[in-house]
Amino acid sequence: MDIEIKEVEDKLKKKVKASSQYFLF
Predict the structure, then answer these.
(1) First-last CA distance in the chain
(2) Which domain of life is it from (predicted)?
(3) What is the CA radius of gyration of the chain?
């Protein structure tokens, strides 16, 4: 279960990073 949660967190972080870059540029 921990691994699954980590994967979801990774995906969310990547999405947030992509969104932040969108707003920055």
Answers:
(1) 36
(2) Bacteria
(3) 11
